[in-house]
Fold each of these.
Amino acid sequence: MPQFSDLSDQQIADLARWIHYARAQGRFKELTEAKDAPPGNIAAGNAYFVEKCGSCHSASGDMAGIASKYSGPQLKAVMLKPNVMDEPSSWKLEQLHDVRKAAARQQHQRLLENYSAVEASNLTAYLATLK
């Protein structure tokens, strides 16, 4: 194992950020390409949504109609990796210190790294009911 004592705190933080990014990318690929994904449980997906997503999202608000916009694999992909995760950082002054968007990216990154196949299927099944 190499010694990292000659790296700066910023370099170590950058390495940690890359490791988390790579883990999330791998998890996204695993969950979207799984051929044997378990069937989703709507009630369990609703409970998961309330617990993990409900502080920022509302089923009758910003998530209303998501099932009409996306279906099946698309819905799962958007749920796992929403557009906010792929948006480039803005250098516009009014958006430079948008802590809300940065917090949303971090929260979605953490969720993506840690979703189980069952949780992803349950949440997708629940979101499919939001027409």
Amino acid sequence: MPPRAQWADLPVRRGRDLYTGLVRDRPFVHNPHGHDALALLSRRADLWLRAADGRAAGEIAAELAVDAAAAQTWLSELPLLLRNGFLLAPGVRPWRPKGPGERVFHAWLHLTNACNLACPYCYIHKTPTHMGDAAVAHTLTAIEATARSGEVDRIHVRFAGGEPMLRFAAMQRFYEEATARCQAHGVRFGAAILTNGTVVPAGAVQWCRERGVQVSVSIDGVGPMQDVMRPVVGGGSSFARVEAGLDAWQAGGIRPYALVTVGASNLDGLPALASYLMQRQLGFRFSLVRDLEWGAGLLDDRHGAQAPHSYDATLPSGLLAGEPLRRLQRALGATYDLIEAEVGRGTLQPSFRRTHKFCDLEPWRPIAKACGAGETYVAISEQGEVGACQAALHHTGTRPLAASSLVAQARGQTQLSSWQRGLGNDECNRCRHKPSCAGGCPLLLHRREGHVDGRSPYCEVFRAVLPRILRIAALEMWVGRERQRTLHTAPPMDPPGP
């Protein structure tokens, strides 16, 4: 940042692709090219954004102010606006995190193909197969090679399946051994469990709490809606089981993160589910069902569907549109209305801005690709095969896991010709949300279009949801500011009596 005396000489102009709006009559702005660049604006800052057209800041300040003294006050608004890239000036770089940051490599570990639920949209073909001793040994060797390579500071494994809690003892053994091998090379090891929430083995809560293992629970509805979306093999209510599981986790001091798959069958119940999760004070993510297997179209109601199509057969191309799109937008609109009302009352916990996710959107940092597949992420099957993504396991392009670093194996994956996305099409390049979206899931796009550059099939959904997320996050900031102002201006309390 230049010295204060030089601010007046800076030519300033409005940043690119800014999104602006109002919450409680207070303007806010978001810079998708910035890091954590969302701000509530003062009246002066808002006028700066309107007036900045490439002229010197001093000239603009003089135009906006009533006298020379006031112009200096106007210039004092510049640091925040320049820091976040809301205003741009020659030689001034917006704030970026210092250094390369922690180097983290992620691995999806498919402990088992078995599951006690039969979710109709699941892309995994269920079998009773578990990860055997040989596959475990190969995976541990690869993790140790990754730690020894010097390329990472931390390795993070997601225990998944199937239902990984059916293999809890094996999970414990793997975790302890992987931790020891990583620590021997000065690398941290961490883990998360992706579970359907219906199985909580004895001792699991305490074990996860003591080791800091994160827990994510899949839940798609309340009551019968959950039972339809995620039926129990052999019958019974999956909602009753997952609710009991949530009770156990929360009673033991762990707050699971909720993973919600949104499809045609549970759209109408989405507002009720959001209310349920907010009452439990759980953070949650909405993920639109990925039509990777079933072949008919996006957001199908898959009940009674026949055998899935081959992964290698490209689906008909095109965006979600027409009445299916409008129905989805109505359901999401009603759901975010409830969330916004809760945020507006100042009662939502945990923080919406820090915990809520919608698909792979990243509003708080610019991205060139929606995930780390092929770079900082691999999936390992129960058979000891490695692929770019868990949704593409058990398909062509996976290869036997080697004893070398997982970083090198990620870069050498061949399931898709390239995961690096150019997004050279005109529509994406004109879209202000491109840095937050990056075209969505590359595997889904490749499945439907045969390439990874272009608009996501869910593009119009993203365009509708991103402004809602930004508005609610700005409202949360406004509520926080007002709470602090109330605390600072409250009269002192009377001293306690005798």
Amino acid sequence: MTSRVTAVDGLLVLMVVIWGVNYSVIKRAFAEIPPHPFNALRLMIASAVFLAAIRVARRRARVAGAQLSSALYTPHQLTRRDRVDLVWLALIGHFAYQFCFASGVALTSVSNAALIIGASPVAVAVISTAVGRDRISRLHWTGAAISITGIYFVVGRGASFGGPTLNGDLLVIVSVVCWALYTVGASRLIARHSPLYVTGTTMAIGTLPYVLIALPQLLRLRWAEIPVDIWVALLLSALLALNVAYLIWYIGVQRIGPSRTSVYSNVVPIVAMAVASVWLGEPLTRTRIIGAAAVLTGVALTRVRRRT
């Protein structure tokens, strides 16, 4: 067997850092802006950036001799099935996922939400295997199990499911299913079209119904009272957590498959925990360090491939 670290792994580590830090960023922002208006504004900014980037990539591709990475542009034409897939992926992966995630986190504890989201690689692996998109080895399942065990030690020991958090827990579970369906469903599209195009187009389509639902709250916002640092947080969260990190996610799905890419999401709660420890002064216990080591070990096992 061989474990080969590639440039894609480096990009996925960057994605993990961005999403881990983003938890603390949006926690500060939610104190000034309600979750759904904040998310709607993020999605509008990120969608505009994606659509502009898609247009630039197409123009550059038309220049004689210009060659772009398949992550940014492919010459394939859209089929009727592609168009249908773009719409349902937009509704599931951006509208439904973002709505359920934001609503769920507002109604449950951070520990519960992080533990549930930590199970997303298993959901991706199960769905991917069921539809025949990925072949999962025993070593991968072992790595996923070790990684989820680590997530429990990091955030799960203090989690308490049911009771007053039940509705929030269920919404976060639904968001995990939405994300898994989106990840696996998009793998067919990004085999022919660039991750930039698929991510940007689905985000733009999914943003429309989200903004319509958040519109009453957006209209009630007192824009002049929002601090400058919250606007900076909003902009950075859109450009980094949505534009950069989402693009990296689908580059990973395109290059190493949905199941192996999804395991990196297990590391996000670890980064969030570390940032909260430094920034917010939350305790970093021995149990959490052991859990973090287990998560990283699990991720490493999923990247081990049989030598052919």
